[in-house]
Specification:
The chain has about 250 residues and is an alpha/beta fold. It has 8 helices and 12 strands.
Length: about 250
């Protein structure tokens, strides 16, 4: 007996003639992507891709199911319409899928929801490259080309250890270009992946003890050492810790 095939990670939703053209182009370039097309245009597809979902009735009746079944939802629909469609289904950035909008001319790719944790920002840049379009990013750390505190080291397997309020506060300090101490005692050094230099407000240290805590607005600490209560107390809402996997140097 064959095991069930997992749901595709990407859904491309097209309800206009030009949107369908762009969606079909992407479907060929994104293995595993599923296409959802309105009944009006599905009937005219000479060689419909597989898998294909024919959307009957209003889009609003399908959003809840799509939210639970896909990691990236790409709508070839107006931004305002998408905001209204997804609003009743929003839960949290930890669980919501990435939601993106591509305009009818295929010029712009806009991440609408879950840009960082959900990966919509990175996926927008990928789609923009495939469509020869422009990704319109509004997340401050991406626009400012600085450290994304909430997902730093995720591709390296780093575990984020910090209360949510710390992540929020420290993210604000980073994008506001306040002095930040980055202490790396373990893990891969390949955490800075942007082509631009590390921002000048980020100062690097090899040991936590080397940091003058009074001189820095916040501390990002990559370590395998136990983080004691005294550390959190010394840096209330100013400390974010990352735990790299043991196999990393």
């Amino acid at each position: 007996m064959n095991s069930p095939t997992p749901a595709p990670r990407i859904l491309l939703v097209a309800i206009t003639k030009h949107g369908l053209t762009h969606a079909l182009r992407l479907a060929e370039l994104l293995p595993g992507a599923q296409l959802a097309v309105s009944e009006k245009f599905a009937a005219n597809l000479a060689n419909p891709p597989h898998p294909l979902e024919i959307v009957a009735g209003p889009l609003s009746g399908h959003i809840g199911r799509w939210f639970g079944g896909f990691e990236q939802l790409v709508f070839f629909v107006s931004l305002g319409a998408v905001v209204r469609l997804i609003a009743p289904h929003l839960q949290s950035k930890e669980s919501d899928p990435g939601v993106l909008v591509v305009d009818d001319a295929g010029r712009y790719v806009i991440p609408v929801l879950s840009g960082h944790v959900g990966g919509a920002n990175a996926f927008a840049e990928r789609l923009a490259g495939l469509l020869d379009a422009q990704a319109v990013l509004t997340t401050a750390s991406d626009v400012g080309r600085t450290i994304p505190v909430d997902i730093l080291g995720r591709e390296l397997g780093w575990e984020l250890l910090a209360p949510k309020i710390n992540v929020t506060r420290v993210s604000a300090h980073v994008v506001n270009q306040e002095l930040i101490a980055f202490v790396q005692e373990a893990g891969s050094k390949r955490w800075w992946t942007r082509p631009s230099p590390l921002p000048a407000n980020i100062h690097l240290f090899a040991r936590f003890e080397d940091v003058d805590l009074t001189a820095y607005r916040a501390v990002l600490w990559v370590t395998r050492r136990p983080v004691e209560a005294a550390h959190w107390q010394a840096l209330p809402e100013r400390l974010v810790v990352y735990r790299p996997p043991l196999e990393q140097l």
